[in-house]
Design a protein that fits this description.
globular, 45% helix, 5-stranded parallel β-sheet, 438 residues, 19 helices
């Protein structure tokens, strides 16, 4: 798997060298660009995963114009702004220009690396469903930041992992991120739908068979588990696996080998298992519907994905992500949801989580909107539910104002107090129309 590639548009030699040294040390590929035409060509050819725009010696307005120009033909690539200026006006202007994140120079190298990784986590691609794009998980709420920290620790080990969460929260995406961040990233990542394999096919599909092992076996077939040798196997919805399938998987985990049908002796297989479920496995164990020994084998490390209703402060980021994604997919130019439409989104409980959010926004785009999306363009079933739901209390706005007041309107300290990034704070200030004069 290739390392993320960065384009650096920065005129100051010293700062450019600092950026390059830090990024290379953390495994990124770095290309320096000095001309707008070259930058444009590389982006049109999809030659980068992120662009760092520096303001040293350049009029701030020109850099923001460059960002706007990039967004005209490339709505998906993350843009990170490095600036020697820091103000509310700049932050809002950067948001409008399509900047994903900005940091103020001088900065610590860890701060730069964290900002780059946050931006890459918002890379827009075909979402595997449902949390984010190809680079990572979207969300700056405290539960999501804590989850990302746990993911980083788990990725450095080789232990089996159990991922829990409601339907639509993004369990497969978490499994893929663990694999891509692990030492096994160069090897296969294999998904097995535990509910879709009947008992009669468990052995032949997972372990394979020799030629002539049974009627119709005209050639040898390598099972899925052997095909994933050296990599990661994702057992999706393992709570739905039959008792027979559980026994077969347990034996493979314990023996670290597969028994191909028609072959004498086992075949050594080295895989890491990541299992996922939306069920309470402990309760299934108590009800003797799930094997206790298998539960202990897969529940070595555990991570829980919070439902969307418990992290609604991430809604703005998620909506922005999918608007950009569907604009690119459908060739449209939808700017935002109206305040009234956003109120409906915040009032909704999202029982289908991110998958429901994605599908709802796709339904809106099918009707070919342009500009802002109003409540009139929301699907009827959703707008009816919105009309019947009382608006959520404005506690987030009050918390934001309280944090700003407590820090004497120091935006960085207020963001830290709320456990948000600075750009999240500015997004919410714009969302609630909050300024120093409020």
């Amino acid at each position: 798997m290739s390392q993320p590639s960065l384009l650096v548009f920065e005129g100051a030699t010293v700062l450019r060298d600092v950026i390059s040294e830090s990024m290379l040390r953390h495994g990124f590929e770095v290309t320096h660009v000095f001309e707008k035409a070259v930058l444009t060509r590389l982006l049109r050819d999809r030659q980068a995963d992120l662009v760092i725009l520096g303001q040293s010696g350049v009029d701030p307005g020109n850099i923001l114009e460059l960002a706007q120009d990039i967004r005209q033909f490339c709505r998906t690539i993350p843009l990170l702004l490095i600036t020697s200026h820091s103000s509310e006006e700049l932050a809002i202007a950067a948001l409008r220009a399509g900047i994903n994140e900005y940091i103020k120079h001088p900065f610590g190298l860890d701060e730069l690396v964290d900002a780059v990784r946050r931006c890459l986590s918002q890379t827009i691609g075909e979402p595997p469903l449902p949390l984010a794009g190809t680079g990572g998980i979207i969300g700056e709420s405290a539960p999501m930041r804590e989850m990302r920290a746990r993911l980083a620790k788990m990725a450095s080990t080789d232990s089996n992992v159990l991922v829990t969460g409601e339907t639509g929260t993004g369990k497969e995406l978490v499994a893929e991120l663990l694999h891509r961040s692990s030492r096994r990233r160069q090897k296969p990542f294999l998904t097995i739908n535990c509910a879709a394999i009947p008992d009669s096919l468990v052995e032949s599909e997972l372990f394979g068979y020799e030629k002539g092992a049974f009627t119709g076996a005209q050639s040898r077939k390598e099972g899925k588990l052997k095909a994933a040798d050296g990599g990661t196997v994702f057992l999706d919805e393992i709570g739905d696996m039959s008792g027979y399938g559980q026994a077969k998987i347990l034996r493979m985990i314990e023996a670290k080998e597969v028994q191909r049908l028609g072959r004498e002796g086992g075949i050594s297989v080295d895989v890491r298992f990541i299992a996922a479920t939306n069920q309470d496995l402990e309760q299934l164990v108590r009800q003797e519907k799930f094997r206790r020994d298998l539960f202990f084998r897969i529940n070595v490390a555990r991570i829980h994905i919070p439902p969307l209703r418990e992290r609604k402060e991430d809604l703005l980021l998620l909506v922005d992500y999918y608007i950009r994604y569907f604009n690119s997919r459908f060739g449209l130019n939808v700017r935002r949801l109206s305040d009234e439409a956003l109120d409906c989104f915040f009032a909704h409980d999202w029982p289908g989580n991110i998958r429901e959010l994605k599908n709802l926004l796709e339904a809106i785009f099918v009707d070919l909107p342009s500009g802002d999306v109003s409540t009139a363009q929301l699907p009827p079933h959703f707008s009816r539910g919105c009309a019947e739901t009382k608006p959520a209390p404005p506690d987030e706005r009050e918390r934001l104002l309280s944090a700003l007041s407590a820090t004497n309107w120091n935006k960085s300290k207020a963001a830290d107090k709320l456990q948000w990034s600075r750009m999240t704070l500015y997004r919410k200030m714009a969302r609630y129309n909050i300024s120093r004069a409020s």
